[in-house]
């Protein structure tokens, strides 16, 4: 450790955000440009270089966090980049999008604010691109074997890059018109500018990965035909089957799924549209669902100029400190966290009816009512207890011209016909079934990421992409591989 007393003398300091009033007027990332590097060396000094670093265990990628913290504190950016990229294909994505379970597992977090691991990771990744430490790494020779990867989210891209670098000829099939999956059209520009994604795709092209966009396997290309073309197939389509809200009034106009709303705003940022057909401008918006997707809808609606935005969370408002009985260290605790979008809503008073920032906690939707034209105008809700049972006397209504459903996802989309076309077996909860080697019931077909694991975090998605690449490489090479496999298909986050 560069500074043995760093964790004692240096307080936690995070990458500062631009003022809310400023950043909601554009779609750029919320942080102050250039403000991270001046503080990150001292923040890396806070790492205690633990003998048993639980941040390793908390991160499914197995990131070598104490090692690259020490290298950053010494300003050895090239070595830090090498250690970071040894376990993570896309640290600039995780450094911006991951909720940082590694910080929950930081030993310092037992009784102090954790090391800003996520910020250090982002600084290393950005510095690596700036200094040219991440050139394309094409293979020295080709294996003569071919692999199709279906889906270009973080799992598909990680699997494709690993397999390409191992010498296989890889083609990535994406049903949308651009590569990136949820990172392209689900994640708002203010959370991660798409230039980071484009840069990685360009790197992968230079390494030899092929990309086939606007191709829905099962619809535009028969699934059986794809299987016949390639020596192996990786299904990494994600969990895109959204959950529904089964209440009266769901059929009213103006009620939309989050993933109907967010892609349109992203297409405006891409220059495809002058304005979103579902723009929240001037509307009273209610978001049903308290997770990250709901927060993405919140930040988007605020930027579009909504008259008001309220987010409903069925859970009670969490506290600011870890409950050591229910969620002991080093598990990831449920705490009251203020995302950039919630901070904006709070500072701009975008949700006058909310309990805190833009959220109404312990709130369950009863029904939606509309006007004579069949358009939603009100959302009726009730307070609930810890068992989600309605509390008498807590019914109320919110004005709602636009209702966005952000209730999560249940498994892979079945509409394209990919699952049926390949004859894939499904697990009881609707995800693709696989064995301990990531293999499905169809020979030569493997499944990874949210399509098989279920809805999860980006670090799990990348870890699964790396692990399934090792499984495919082993299958193609006859039983051996040099590719790392950080997780198994049945591994799960640390819980009590």
From TrEMBL:
Alphabetical UniProt keywords: Amino-acid biosynthesis, Glutamate biosynthesis, Oxidoreductase
4Fe-4S ferredoxin-type domain span: 38-69
Pathway(s) the chain acts in: Amino-acid biosynthesis
Keyword Oxidoreductase: yes
Keyword Oxidoreductase: yes
Pfam families for the chain: Fer4_20, Pyr_redox_2
Protein name: Glutamate synthase subunit beta
Organism the protein comes from: Streptomyces thinghirensis
């Amino acid at each position: 450790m560069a500074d043995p007393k760093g964790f004692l003398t240096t307080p936690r300091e995070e990458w500062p955000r631009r003022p809310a009033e400023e950043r909601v007027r554009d779609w750029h990332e919320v942080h102050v440009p250039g403000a991270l590097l001046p503080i990150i060396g001292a923040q890396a000094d806070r790492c205690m270089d633990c003998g048993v670093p639980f941040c390793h265990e908390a991160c499914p990628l197995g990131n070598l966090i104490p090692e690259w913290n020490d290298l950053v504190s010494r300003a050895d950016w090239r070595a830090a980049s090498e250690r970071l990229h040894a376990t993570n294909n896309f640290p600039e994505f995780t450094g911006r999008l991951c909720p940082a379970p590694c910080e929950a597992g930081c030993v310092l977090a037992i009784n102090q604010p954790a090391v800003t691991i996520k910020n250090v990771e982002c600084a290393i990744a950005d510095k690596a691109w700036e200094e040219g430490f991440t050139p394309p790494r094409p293979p020295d020779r080709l294996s003569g074997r071919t692999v199709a990867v279906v889906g270009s989210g973080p799992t598909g891209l990680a699997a494709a890059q690993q397999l390409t670098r191992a010498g296989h000829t890889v083609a990535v099939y994406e049903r949308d018109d651009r590569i990136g999956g949820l990172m392209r059209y689900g994640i708002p520009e203010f959370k991660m500018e798409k230039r980071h994604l484009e840069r990685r795709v360009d790197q992968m092209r230079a390494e030899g990965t092929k990309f086939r966009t606007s191709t829905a396997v099962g619809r535009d290309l028969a699934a059986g035909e794809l299987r016949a073309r390639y020596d192996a197939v990786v299904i990494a389509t994600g969990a895109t089957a959204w959950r529904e809200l089964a209440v009266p009034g769901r059929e009213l106009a103006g009620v939309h799924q989050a993933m109907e709303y967010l892609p349109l705003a992203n297409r405006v940022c891409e220059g495809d549209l002058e304005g979103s057909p579902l723009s929240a401008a001037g509307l009273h918006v209610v978001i049903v669902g308290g997770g990250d997707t709901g927060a993405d809808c919140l930040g988007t609606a605020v930027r579009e100029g909504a008259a008001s935005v309220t987010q409903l969370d069925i859970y009670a408002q969490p506290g600011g400190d870890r409950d050591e009985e229910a969620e002991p260290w080093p598990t990831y605790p449920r705490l009251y966290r203020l995302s950039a979008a919630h901070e904006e809503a709070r500072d701009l008073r975008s949700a006058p009816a909310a309990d805190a920032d833009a959220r109404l906690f312990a709130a369950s939707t009863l029904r939606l009512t509309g006007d004579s034209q069949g358009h939603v105008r009100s959302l009726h809700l009730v307070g609930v207890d810890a068992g989600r049972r309605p509390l008498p006397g807590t019914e109320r209504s919110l004005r709602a011209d636009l209702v966005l459903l952000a209730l999560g996802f249940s498994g892979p989309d079945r509409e394209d016909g990919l699952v049926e076309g390949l004859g894939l077996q499904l697990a009881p909860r609707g995800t693709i079934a696989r064995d301990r080697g990531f293999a499905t019931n169809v020979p030569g077909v493997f499944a990874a990421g949210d399509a098989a694991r279920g809805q999860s975090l980006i670090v799990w998605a990348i870890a699964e992409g790396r692990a399934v690449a090792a499984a495919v490489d082993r299958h193609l090479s006859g039983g051996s591989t040099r590719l790392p496999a950080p997780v198994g298909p049945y591994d799960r986050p640390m819980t009590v």
